[in-house]
Amino acid sequence: MSGTRPVLCITVMLLLGAAWSRRRCDYSMILSTYTQLIFPELQSLNLTGPFETSTENDRCPSSKVTRIVRSIYGMTEQFACLSEGQQEDSKVSVVSKMGQLIKIYCRKTSMGNGRNAMSCKPVQRKKERRRRRVKMIKMLINCWQKLQSAYIQG
Hints:
Layout: H1 4-22, H2 27-44, H3 65-82, H4 90-105, H5 126-153
Helix pairs in contact: 2-4, 3-4, 3-5
């Protein structure tokens, strides 16, 4: 009897380790950190939404948490492309923190290749760039809200 107890404990530990290693992102940490650190910054910028977006422009159409997180990460990368060569402002800082948050609590393999593989399309006109950045922030905020409700339901 006493010889099987250590074997059982080791087996349980190995199973827990295997289950933990399959987990790609720590969604509870992502959401709690977002709520505690990033959301107050968005409030100070008067960017808390929800914002009206058409269903054809919905960048987070899935109700699956993993896909929503992947969409948010992709949008933060696109926002970084739109912000290249410009002075860093508070909006760039907040969106950058969103991307860093996901990088910290998700494995690299679950987020894809990132911006290095994606080409940044140059936007020539300053007004067009600003308009696209504002639109992107609104879509990001809507996706974060969708992520919170999907995580609670799931």
